[in-house]
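User: I would dearly like some help making sense of a protein record. This is the protein in question:
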Amino acid sequence: MGDKPPGFRGSRSWIGCVEASLCLDYFGGPQGRLCHVPRGAGLHGELERLYSHFAGGGGPVMVGGDADAQSKALLGVCLGPGTEAYVLVLDPHCWGALNNPSELQAAGWVGWQEASMAFDPNSFYNLCLTTCNSEKQQHALD
């Protein structure tokens, strides 16, 4: 895209959610809507938005942080009674062909995690909510 120095191409450097969103736009992929959360403790306040995102047909949510350098992708949200909430987390480093979803779970690549334990309360997070650009999806996020 021309936004990185020449030595970046072919390197093992990582990009974050902001760059991933720019790439989706540049290469004509699904729209990536960014949401910045200043502290992981504030992510609990974003769970309703994330739930609406998935309920409206939204795609995976890329998650990147600073103190929490373990990148994640969210595939779903389960809101329980009171403040109980879970997120379905996929490790984006997963690669290769697996025979079935239970293999992904057994290998630790995907699983439900309690929302309060899945994020570092002191880290900021950038979320990239992917959409198929439908009008219905935009209304679900507003």
